[in-house]
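[[Sequence with tokens]]
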Amino acid sequence: MKKLAVFIISIIVMLLTISFFGIGEVAAVLIASNIRLVLIAIICQLAIIFLYGMRFKIITSKYKKLSIKESINVATIGNFVSQITPVAKIGGQPLMIYMIKGKIGSEKSSAVVIMDTVVDFIVSVLLVALIIAFFYSLIPIVLLVPLVIFALITLGLIFGFLKMFLSKDALSRVIDWLLEKAKRFKKIDKIFHTNIFQYSFSKTLHDKKIMSLGMTVSAAIKGFEMLRIWIVFAAIGIVLPTSLLLIIWAVMLLVLSIPWLPGHLGLFEFGVSSAFVILGLVPSQAAGGILLDRFISFWFVLAFSAILIWISRNKISHIINMSEEKELE
């Protein structure tokens, strides 16, 4: 019930944000959009969902060969939970671990899910760094500074976490701290063996074939995300130059990294639309394009995930409860 209330509040915040750009003008832009191009953008999003499953299958193959159907199921349900929780990118990971731990064990499933997330972040931040390096002269200072800070902080966090996960002593200290501070982890010491996790994580990280394939798929995901954005704006009559497309994709990534309400509703629409306006777009077109993209990348994905959960004979409430209550047991 609490999650539903927070989600409703998020929708209200989003609507208030859109009103800032003029609801009538934005609605007119959306009504005039090209439906065929919107459908093509939806196909791009379906390709992204498939590739998330493919990447998870590749990384998990170090210990267990999951079917593509099972991999898509785990990755999509994990993403569904992440989308409806306030903290970006990590809400669905515990549930993903729980869904595969029966096949490969708690430590290996934890290593696989964390590596899947790390690969995604590495590729994302490298692309942002390249975009800054090649197009810094085209990026207004009000956007350039946050992007540089984001890239530096993210790189620092990635290397910090990698060092921790590869160090048995450092990881043991973190787990001991968690055991002291969080009662919900009280059973972890009975089943979670730091040595096995550290070995599994290191083994996966040093597998050149898995890492190269995982990063290649991640790069393809980012490519389809950019293509979807380009098609969405083409649907409302705006052809985005490559430089503008890349810059705005980097801004989207920056906004999505900020802890906020579920789905970043309100913050994403306002932040990215404002960035488009700064870069020269008309406010109604900027907000209209972002709303249309969000319909595909957020609302359509939620609906698709809900259907997948229903087909798998689970209940959404059960999935949400598992994400909150399941611990390694």
Notes: The two ends are 26 Å apart (CA to CA).
